[in-house]
Amino acid sequence: MLEDVEVFASHFIVHERESGLTRLHITWLADGSTHHIEFPEPAYEVSADANAEFDTRLYRFRYQSLITPASVFDYDVITRARTLLKQTEVLGGYDPARYRSERIWTTPPMESRCPSPSCVARRRPATVPRPCT
To answer: Which residues have CB under 8 Å from 111's CB, separation 6+?
Structure first.
């Protein structure tokens, strides 16, 4: 489902929703080639940040998940490299490497599949997801 479109001098970025997640789809105006911005976790939230420059190869977006604190990235649409600009600090000795994020599909009584994000400690087996404590 189409959520938003951002147009730049050489490309445009479509925000599309698929299976409950927002995906960022980049299309080059010159030749129509496309790619998606890949994200490291199966459940996340992503949105555009301020992108005031029209003629640019950098796209700024906000990203967060059950594991990754709220972050701001610059993404180079040519090299596909991302640069972390800012990340909210999590107090109390939080180490994201101790957890993994999963996306589990459930079927409620109305019999339509629903995504259910889950955060589990890495020491627990993947077959028994439990909420973070």
So the answer is: none
